[in-house]
Amino acid sequence: MTRALPTGKFPMLFRRRCVTWLKSVVFPLATLVMVPALPAAAHSEAAAITQPEVDFSQTLEAYYQALEDKDWAKANKLSAQLSSGGRDNPVLGSFGKWLRSAVEAGQGRTAAAEALLNAQAGTDPAPPELQQPALPAFLIIGREDLAARLLDRLASRSPDMVRELPPEWVMPIIRWRDGPQREREDRIITLSELGYLGERGDWFAKEAVGILLARGAEARAVGLLRYIDDPSTVEDMLVQRRYERLWPALAAQAGPALSKSRDSSVRAAEAARAEDPDNSERLSDLVSAYRDARRLDAALVLKGVLPADAASMTKVDENTGWAINDLALALYDAGRGDEGDALFHALNSAVPANSWRVSMFINRVEKLVQNGKFAAALPLIAVAEKEPRNAFADQLLRRLRYCATMKVGQTEAAARLRPAMLEHTKDAPGATIEGLLCAGETDEAEKIALSQIDDESFQSDFVRNLQKEPLTASDASVWGGWSALRSRPAIAAAFHRLGRDLPAEYLPPPFK
């Protein structure tokens, strides 16, 4: 299943998510720390004051907007407003310094920014909750280095708070690779050992496990396995040789056919949704968990709580969109592909243009191509190409267009598409290989696979796509995984060096 989000630095949605999250965690505290700065006579009236929270919210969003607009004078003024009363209240004064440091850094005055940050070190009276707003501020101005320093500081001072930070703040820091590699790896380990992302953090814990194994810290790696129960992630670790030392522990934890992992994943998703039944993200997770557990009946029951037609889908959010996407895939799994395509069509037709729906467009086309409906897929590819998207999504669409064009017999048109697909191999090597395999170009596909084999992220896809039997998240497709490459001696040797076929006792059970 494709999740190919478009590029775009920090759109309005990011800023509003920041403020929405801060409103529930930070603003109540900010309102409380404002109270001591009030004149003594006003203290008795403080409880009746509700406006500061509203102003705080609006002013902070305006501050983030000013940073994005590079309107430094306005950002500085807003940071002063947010910390008004700081002369009498050191907590608010400290809060203002964090925000002003981003203004200084945005103007290239790194020394001044670091002076403000260093002044806070060890003596900062502001609680960690009031330091959080500086994280997205540093990200908006493109100073991941300063955001990383603040995240490390917060992790050491307030691990419980950091455990709950939104991924929109943390993942850009984790993906940032311009800093020291050892520090980045240490950060991943620290956050994983804190249980960051909780039940949704399997893939993150997996990355930390890989780092610890490479360092020879096997005992610490084993300690992180408790955060990994997602069946697809467990399968991936059981076929990748880099995790070989953990195969016995993983197998014992997962059970036959990964039954323990599948059940654990479902229980966690059910409990999370029961705790917050109106949360669309929890609903999306539950549909996905049922699919991965092969419990299609349970997944399809949730169709009753989701928008069912285009008219009711016009206002769905991203997580509801993913729930509908997964439900459409469950219909395909159940042999009801026409219903699944109709659901995709309703979703893609109804949702207004936004930053996330390109993945649903691609997934619809994927299923049509995988089921041999090439003529039906081609016009939909043209529609998807009008969506905002990143380089990865572009290459997925090139591969789909090349494959479908070849399969409908338009060989000359396909030949014209081929150079652009090959030129962008680096954007999605696996997709390029699949496009070539679809056209029967096994030699060229092998050449590209072997040229990418030293890339660690490609190695995982390489081993997974060469599996003899499809795994949990694998879709039967027109290119049949990469089975055409398995007989090639060089490919077979690389596969044996990097991984193995998943043993039969761990293969996914049939859908039910």
List its salient traits.
globular; 512 residues
Helix/strand order, N-terminal first: HHHHHHHHHHHHHHHHHHHHHHHHHHHH
Structural class: mainly alpha
The mean pLDDT is: 84
Low-confidence stretches: 1-16, 23-54
Helix content: 55-70%
**Tally of helical segments:** 28
Instruction: Tell me the major beta sheet.
Output: none
- The radius of gyration computed from the alpha-carbon positions, rounded to a whole number of angstroms, is 25 Å
Structural shape: globular
- Strand tally is 0
Describe how the helices and strands are arranged.
Elements lengths: L11 H14 L1 H8 L16 H18 L3 H11 L7 H17 L3 H11 L13 H7 L3 H14 L1 H5 L3 H9 L5 H13 L8 H13 L3 H6 L7 H9 L7 H8 L4 H17 L4 H13 L3 H6 L16 H16 L3 H14 L7 H13 L3 H11 L6 H17 L3 H13 L5 H10 L3 H10 L4 H10 L23 H10 L14
Helix pairs in contact: 1-3, 2-3, 3-4, 4-5, 5-6, 7-8, 8-10, 11-12, 14-15, 16-17, 17-19, 19-20, 20-21, 21-22, 21-23, 22-23, 23-24, 23-25, 25-26
Concise structural overview:
The chain is mainly α.
Question: Please, could you describe this protein's structure?
Answer:
By secondary structure, this protein is mainly alpha-helical. Helix 17 runs parallel beside helix 19, helix 23 (391-407) runs parallel beside helix 25 (429-438) and helix 25 (429-438) runs antiparallel to helix 26. It has helices at residues 12-25, 27-34, 51-68, 72-82, 90-106, 110-120, 134-140, 144-157, 159-163, 167-175, 181-193, 202-214, 218-223, 231-239, 247-254, 259-275, 280-292, 296-301, 318-333, 337-350, 358-370, 374-384, 391-407, 411-423, 429-438, 442-451, 456-465, 489-498. The chain contains 28 helices and no strands. It starts with 11 loop residues before the first helix and ends in a 14-residue tail after the last helix.
